[in-house]
């Protein structure tokens, strides 16, 4: 019988059902909504019930429309949840990656949390979903580097769960538009080769960074909340030979984001009055 590693090598991905504890994921999802709800309250003056999914997602759209910067910054902030990072370093992941052949896994980049909805796009732009691409193009890590993709809400076709093209890692690294974040593949692809994943909370897809994949089409009025973890293999010979290339740029802003802040009074408020 084919081992999981053989299936992973053949298809370029595997789906593992019930891999994560639902409660752990629910907690991350809840914490992310709590952070957004603070900005929803500040910007829109409403206290939205984070347990009411329709109402909450609508409030997210309203925040996006009213204060795009606040939305983007909050989106970045939730990526830094300690619970999310803790999950990304769970020994269970290391063991699973080792079973799949990444003998010595290391984090490739910070975790990413995505909120996909056509209502979270500017002027009808398609940036809310990703065209066919290979993550290796943007990560350039070990040849066997892998992505763990999972939803924070049940993700079916209608909610636009990720779509994968089985065996497409054997097409090699494709020409891509590297001008933006997407790294979209330029060649015409046979779209009928895409497989639509359908995942419950707790299920994961592990895929090779060379696998061609794309966002599904979220046709619902709800947000598709999902997370991606990325790992390299320190033992990969080409990774060592290429001196561990690091393609993600992480640097501070040159300008103060809030000009004139903080004053000495602001500082004293924190350090003297508490
Ligand atoms: O979440 C999606 O729809 C696509 C995600 C993806 O392509 C990626 O993280 O590389």
From TrEMBL:
Official protein name in the record? Phytanoyl-CoA dioxygenase
Database matches in SUPFAM superfamilies: Clavaminate synthase-like
Tell me which InterPro entries the record gives.
Answer: Phytyl_CoA_dOase-like (IPR008775)
Its domain of life reads: Bacteria
Please tell me the species this chain comes from: Ravibacter arvi
State its cofactor: Fe(2+)
């Amino acid at each position: 019988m084919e081992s999981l590693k053989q299936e992973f090598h053949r298809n370029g991905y595997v789906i593992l059902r019930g891999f994560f504890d639902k409660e752990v994921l629910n907690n991350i999802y809840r914490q992310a909504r709590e952070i957004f709800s603070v900005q929803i309250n500040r910007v829109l003056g409403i206290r939205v019930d984070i347990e009411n999914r329709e109402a909450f997602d609508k409030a997210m759209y309203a925040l996006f429309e009213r204060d795009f910067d606040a939305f983007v910054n909050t989106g970045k902030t939730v990526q830094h949840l300690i619970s999310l990072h803790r999950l990304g370093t769970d020994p269970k992941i290391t063991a699973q990656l080792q079973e799949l052949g990444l003998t010595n896994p290391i984090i490739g980049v910070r975790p990413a949390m995505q909120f996909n909805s056509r209502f979270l796009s500017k002027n009808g732009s398609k940036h809310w979903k990703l065209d066919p691409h290979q993550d290796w193009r943007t990560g350039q890590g070990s040849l066997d580097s892998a992505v763990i993709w999972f939803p924070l809400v049940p993700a079916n076709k209608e909610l636009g769960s990720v779509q994968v093209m089985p065996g497409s890692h054997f097409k090699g690294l494709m020409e891509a538009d590297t001008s933006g974040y997407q790294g979209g593949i330029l060649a015409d692809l046979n779209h009928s080769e895409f497989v639509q994943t359908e995942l419950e909370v707790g299920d994961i897809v592990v895929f090779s960074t060379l696998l061609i994949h794309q966002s599904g089409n979220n046709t619902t009025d709800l947000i598709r909340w999902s997370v991606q973890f990325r790992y390299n293999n320190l033992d990969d010979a080409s990774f060592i030979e290429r001196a561990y290339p690091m393609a993600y740029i992480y640097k501070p802003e040159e300008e103060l984001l809030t000009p004139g802040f903080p004053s000495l009074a602001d500082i004293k408020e924190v350090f003297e009055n508490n």
